Amino acid sequence: MVIDDLSEPELVLWEAFPVARPVDLPGAPVRAAVIAKLLLGAQDRLPGQTPGLRLSGARITGRLDLSDAEVQHPLILTGCEFEEAPVLTGARTGLVDLAASRLPGLRAADAVIGGGLRLEGCLMDGPIQLGGAHVSGTMDLSDTAIHADPAVHADGLTVNRDLLCANAVIDGEMRLAGARIGGTMMLDAARVGRPGGRGLTAEGIVVDGGLSGRHGFLSYGELSVQDARVGRRCEFGGARLSNPGGIALNAERLAVEGRLLFNEGFAAEGEVLLRAAQVAGQLSFSHATLANPGGRALNAPLMELGRGLRATPGFAATGAIFLDSTQVRGSLNVDGGRISNPGATALSLRRLGVTGRLSCSEGFSAEGEIVLINAKVEGNMEFHGAALSNPGGRALSLWEVTAGAGVDCCEGFTATGALSIRNSRIASTLCFAETTLDGDLHLRGVEAASLKIGPETLLLRTVDLRHTRVGLLDDVPDRWPAQLLMNGFTYDSLEAPLPVQERLDWLAKEAYQPQPYEQLAAVYRRHGHDEAARDVLLAKQRRRRTGQRLGARLWGYLQDWTVGYGYRPFRAALWLAALLLIGTVAFAIHQPPAFKPGEAPPFNAFLYTLDLLLPIISFGQESAFGPRDLQQWLAAALIAAGWILTTTILAGLTRVLSRQ
Question: Among 60, 179, 196, 432, fewest CB within 10 Å belongs to which?
Answer without folding.
Answer: 196
